[in-house]
Design a protein that fits this description.
Length: about 300
């Protein structure tokens, strides 16, 4: 059965069938509109807060960057001021050093060069180191003496040889330098004792009585405490500034030590012909004696060479 509202009053029927449903629909529509407005307001507020937060964060980052840039600029200015201060200090020190060198040059030219006698150099002149107590007017004075001049000369020679790509494997050997020194010093052009290394104590004390190889002796006598020559010691102190190579110094020192420590050989005794010896035995002994004499002659020549060196 379907209620058609026939038994009800028209007003109640109209209210129940039309007005009340319409009112419910309107209420539902108003509530939905209210919820939609609330959602829109929430979304608008969320977007607004997000934009504000982003802007605030960007402002904070911008301010931090600004402060960092300001700090960097202050540090840069501080470094520039320190650099300028350092350059001014170095410039003043350089001017003072320049003035000191100029005054020293004037003193050297006035007190030393002015009174010195000028002669053409010849190999017969002696070569002295600076502050050498044995210095006299029969030679010249240079820093490092004759040994120092040898070191500088061979270093320059090696640099010149190695400047060519084809000579990159070249090196000075001890035997090569020793042979050169022996041929050089055996001539009559150089005076005796031209190549001398002065030590603070006897070589036996330096080696402590041990029989060391020339290379080990060369290393010991290069120590600062064993060097007497002022200029040579000064050269070794400023090796890096002079660009001196340790290998060249070791080779030259070892060659000098091999020559200086070479000892003369004693001549061998001749064989005595026993009484009643047969002719063949006599001939053999005479032949041996002739060989011994030849060997002794060679030894005498070598000993004479050693004595001159």
């Amino acid at each position: 059965m379907i209620d058609l509202g026939t038994l009800r009053r028209p007003r109640d029927l109209s209210l129940g069938t039309s007005f009340v449903p319409t009112l419910y629909n309107q209420i539902q529509c108003d509530m939905q509109a209210h919820h939609d407005n609330q959602d829109q307001i929430d979304e608008f507020l969320s977007e607004s807060m997000r934009d504000v937060a982003i802007s605030h964060k960007q402002s904070i980052v911008k301010e931090l960057n600004k402060r960092q840039e300001k700090k960097k600029e202050e540090m840069r200015k501080k470094r520039e001021e320190e650099e300028q201060r350092r350059k001014r200090k170095e410039r003043r020190a350089a001017l003072r050093e320049k003035d000191r060198i100029a005054k020293l040059k004037d003193i050297i030219m006035k007190d030393i060069v002015g009174t010195a006698e000028q002669h053409e150099y010849s190999p017969k002149m002696k070569v002295y180191d600076v502050r050498d107590p044995n210095t006299s007017n029969d030679g010249i004075v240079i820093v490092g003496g004759f040994v120092g001049e040898l070191i500088i000369s061979f270093k320059c020679m090696l640099d010149y040889i190695l400047s060519y790509p084809n000579n990159q494997n070249f090196f000075f050997s001890v035997e090569m330098i020793q042979q050169f020194f022996e041929e050089l010093f055996l001539t009559d052009e150089f005076p005796d004792g031209i190549c001398t290394i002065n030590l603070t104590k006897d070589l036996t004390d330096i080696t402590q009585g041990r029989d060391l190889a020339p290379a080990q002796i060369a290393k010991l006598i290069r120590e600062k405490g064993n060097i007497t020559d002022f200029g040579l010691k000064f050269m070794f102190d400023i090796m890096k500034e002079l660009d001196l190579q340790v290998d060249v110094i070791e080779v030259i020192y070892t060659a000098i030590c091999k020559i200086a420590t070479k000892k003369p050989e004693e001549p061998a005794e001749l064989l005595v012909v026993p009484e009643g010896a047969e002719e063949e035995e006599k001939d053999r002994i005479e032949e041996e004696n002739s060989k011994i004499k030849e060997a002794n002659e060679l030894k005498e020549k070598e000993n004479a060479k050693i004595a001159k060196l």
